[in-house]
Amino acid sequence: MSVAIVGAGPSGLASGKACIEAGLKPKIFEKSSGLGGIWNIEHGSTWESMRTNLSKYSCMFSDFPWNKDSDDFPLCADVSKYLNAYAKHFSLDTCILYNTEVTRVDRDSAKNKWSINAKIADREAVEELFDYVIIGSGFFVESKIPQGLSEFSGTLTLSQKYRNPNNLKGKVVAVIGGAFSGSEIAADVASVATKVIHIKERNFWILGRYLENESKTKQIPLDLVFYKRRQKSAEQLPLEEVNRRKHAYFQSLSNQAEVSDSLKVPTESYATPPYVVISDGYLEAFKANRIKVINSRFTHAKGNEIFLENGTSEKVDAVIACSGFTSKLPFFSPDILTSLNYDEADQFQPFLLHKNMYHPKLPNVAFVGMYRGPFFGVIELQARWAALSFAKPGEYYPTEEEQYKGIAEEQAIKQDSPRPQFPHGDYVELVDAIAKRIGVYPESYFNKDQQHAISLGPVIPSHFRLEGPYSNASVATDIIKECNEKFPN
């Protein structure tokens, strides 16, 4: 059975590997000349000094470990090398068609197959039929450009195109946008610029990549502290109280309010969902007066002057727009996009799918990594579910009733007000739910030697390679052991 996979980023690679495991025949279509998606150092959306927000133990696939001497938080170039090594190790490079852009994905109902139209370099599009399709083209596709910049006379750079601050030395630079990219790029540019003016509409909790362990004896990557299986409280707290407790916890981890009132998260917002950014250099750059924070909305620019909603203006030489990304599905027809409730302007939930994967109007199609905030662990589990659902549909493919119910749940999340930072912020709950659905939840290991590591330690992708379909307990156990020995809780 043939599977067309759109995109050779982490989602496409994990999907290709899962399809091969399940006895399927994948063909991966990649529009650029190299694999890696956003992590591709030539065609991706990363900058030279960018590191992963999560440690290598979370940014890895379950049965392919990083080298033991690699950094805890790898650089983007290292992630690119990791993905290339993964593709080579599992013979995925032979499945990839480079410089091949999928232009149309459509249903051939008469043949019960999917038609893929693809353009190879500058040649005419070719058509091929497949039994199944996986969409792994990436959620973060195109930088959103803030309105009002058309009359700006300085240099404008989108976060997607930013690579390094070399051409900004000695300049006054405005960074518009306060999330991960905005904060990290502001800190990066502050190393050479005369001044960075960081414009954002809200304050985020600013955390470094390391936190103290529970015994306060060692610095541990924050994901290994946050992502654990904790006993759910029987007490059902109101959402506002849950939010207040989260804010109080983040406040205990950050001294930003003591640094400056302009960094303070207002207590009156504690009833709403907290927003977090991860940056090791931001607070230091701020304390050194290299970053000026303005909590207001950018409205427009004229010449070299930018104007803000609070009535102030700033003269700058350059603007870096970090206003987030929009998702694109250009290969689907308007009818399919309508079925998906596609809304390009919505950066939170631009389309609705059961478990972010399936839609009853798109039979034999699965989406992988196509939601806001995709982690390696989720991507891999979704890829494995997709492959299993194609190979053994009676056992793994969700029913139409399940899919409509799941889509209704996503619709409810879409309508959340105020919206949280991510639609699926509980990482452990998300991965465990998928793992249980496809039979790879490490149930039996709760009573084995690894009990502490599995039940109380950090949840990492290798937990889901211990048992179930296509398990590799030997490799997974070694990874779990290495993680817990290096960072004991």
Number of strands: 22
CATH topology of the largest domain: FAD/NAD(P)-binding domain
- Averaging pLDDT over every residue, what do you get? 95
Number of spatially distinct domains: 2
Helix content: 25-40%
CATH class membership of the largest domain: Alpha Beta
Question: Which homologous superfamily in CATH is the superfamily of the largest domain?
Answer: FAD/NAD(P)-binding domain
The largest sheet, given as strand count, sense and whether it forms a barrel, is: 5 strands, parallel
Distance between the termini: 45 Å
Net shape: globular
Q: What structural category characterises the helix and strand content? A: alpha/beta
**How big a fraction of the residues is strand?**
15-25%
**What is the helix tally?**
14
